[in-house]
Known about the structure:
Elements: H1 2-22, H2 37-51, H3 65-76, H4 82-92, H5 98-110, H6 115-132, H7 137-152, E1 170-175, H8 182-195, E2 200-204, H9 210-223, E3 226-229, H10 236-250, E4 254-258, H11 266-281, E5 288-294, H12 299-309, E6 316-320, H13 331-338, E7 342-346, E8 354-356, H14 359-366
Parallel strand pairs: 1-4, 1-5, 2-3, 2-4, 5-6, 6-7
Antiparallel strand pairs: 7-8
Amino acid sequence: MAAVGLVLVVAAVTIVVGRRRALPPAPPAPALPSATAAEVAEGDEAVAEVVAEPAVAPLETPEPPASRLSRLRRRLSASNNPFARGLLGLLAADRLDAEAWEDLEATLITSDLGVGPTDELITALRREVAIDGVADPAKARDVLRAELLKLIGTDSDRSLNVTGADGKPGVILVVGVNGTGKTTTIGKLSRVLVAEGHTVLLAAADTFRAAAADQLQTWGSRVGVRVIRGAEGGDPASVAHDAVAAGIEEGVDVVVVDTAGRLHTKTGLMDELGKIKRVIDRLAPVTEVLLVIDATTGQNGLAQARVFAEVVDVTGIVLSKLDGSAKGGIVVPVQRELGVPVKLIGLGEGADDLAPFEAEGFVDALLGES
């Protein structure tokens, strides 16, 4: 049986091999046409289109500072401004009797004008009205405007000093308590400077607040302004140094330096600010020190101003949030406290709602004049 099985296997193998030899050879596969140079180039372009970077959003064009003023005046004279409301109430009175004067005095004091400036204003108004022997609201408006301008001051230089010496950039050091809108103000300030034709570099030297550098990055990218930043929790003075050095190398017009504002660590904060200024001064003089004060904090803003004035020579004040519940009278006492002028005011949440402060425009807005 084994022999028979072996014979059958051999026979089967022989038949299979024979059939394979009898089959005709398979036809050759058709040759694919070779691609031409033009087709290759078109293919490369197609690939390039796929991997191309997405289009960069066009840079924004900030509103010129001069054109902002009329819009901001309308917000300043809104009916929810206590200071403006008190003044307009006086002008709308049928007659300026004792009760009207008392009401005005109370309103001015609660509007953060301060007791001293309020007394000066009321005394001057009553004297001028008495001299003319009239109790005419129209006349009172003229007298009121003149006396307010005396309190605020029209002779102060409110321009920003952004011109450095020997071809170096101007350096603006911005200080203030966290929560006053300092970093946002710097972003808006960069737009003001760009609108005026300056090249700008920002320094994110508030390294203890992670969101601060990101905020500046967002603001800067909208108008093509570069931001120098360091490691979170790093040395703020080192960031300021690197930014000013980069500004000198790149030949920019202005370097704006953000700083921390942790007032609860007063001693450390003041030492830190002093160090930042000393480090910057080795490269280029600080041309402007702006103190940002939240206008809604009223008298607390004066206390903050005193603290910062102890360590840095403040050259100008920025009043942020001077709309809504803000009490515009703070302009007068804060200038008297520091002996420096208000240079910029913020009157809204919009990107271009920061404008140079003008005494005449401020008073006219309060009195409801265009």
